[in-house]
UniProtKB/TrEMBL annotation:
Stored Gene3D superfamilies: P-loop containing nucleotide triphosphate hydrolases
Species of origin: Moraxella cuniculi DSM 21768
One Pfam family in the UniProt entry: AAA_31
InterPro entries for this protein: AAA_dom, DNA_Partitioning_ATPase, P-loop_NTPase
Superkingdom, natural source: Bacteria
Coiled-coil annotated residue ranges, if any: none
Similarity annotation: To B.subtilis soj.
CDD domains listed in its UniProt record: ParAB_family
Protein name per Swiss-Prot or TrEMBL: Chromosome segregation ATPase
Chain ranges of the AAA domain: 1-180
Amino acid sequence: MEIIAVANQKGGVGKTTTTVNLAAALSLIAKKKVLLIDLDSQGNATTSLGLDKNALTHTMADVLLDGVPLADAIIKSEQGVDVIGANRDLAGIDVSLAGVSDAPFLLRQAIADAKAANRLDYDYIIMDCAPSLSMITVNALAATEGVIIPMQCEYYALEGVADLIATIDKLKNINPNLSIRGVVRTLFDYRNTLAQDVSAELVRHFGDLVYQTSIPRNVRLAEAPSFGQSIFGYEKSSKGAIAYHMLMNEVVAQSKARNLSA
Ligand SMILES: Nc1ncnc2c1ncn2[C@@H]1O[C@H](COP(=O)(O)OP(=O)(O)O)[C@@H](O)[C@H]1O
Ligand SMILES: [Mg+2]
């Protein structure tokens, strides 16, 4: 089982779109068993998969704050991906966890407990993070091995991500396995020379960590969530679907390379 966090403290860079469609591609195309964990109180990933975020029996807030077993909060979505949803209940968590000594490890522990109870049978767990470096994001980074960073190729793209990288470096003390799995260029417009310049700068800065696939700006990707569908359910021949399919192939290739070297 591999655990991936999709993170960037900037909002609107395509974290949720990437989480949902990567998870859907892994499940529907690669036939992997996938659990998506929504760690954003906006619950966009939850609703993107057709779930009513305000009608959930359990959410991540119950898991992190009330000790509800993680496996009890899993819901089957109709998109083939299992989900642990989130909603506004997650918003106050930083305050609730102030002074709790093991606060950064709650998610990691919840996953470990579920594994120990044989209740977590997945190839991939993919977590959608909020646009902040809050305690919940720290929980995601403490629980994960690989971080995928979606980046929009615009001015300040790199500046925005410096804090995330500093946080990842700091967290290596408590989670030595933590690393950047890849940087994915999102909302990409080939005709825009600024986007090309920033893209080249990302490649200079991150080298091989930049996925070869970049995700184009594609209106179908923006429309799909309002139908509660991934891009593969909504319009599988769109440019957006093709791009996320290719990104998924790269992610699976990384997994194979890891297993070979392990
Ligand atoms: N490749 C894309 N093409 C067109 N619209 C996109 C694309 N990626 C994301 N969007 C839209 O941009 C907005 C922000 O994307 P989102 O994935 O929610 O970002 P984040 O989770 O980082 O805040 C959403 O309205 C989403 O539908
Ligand atoms: Mg989001």
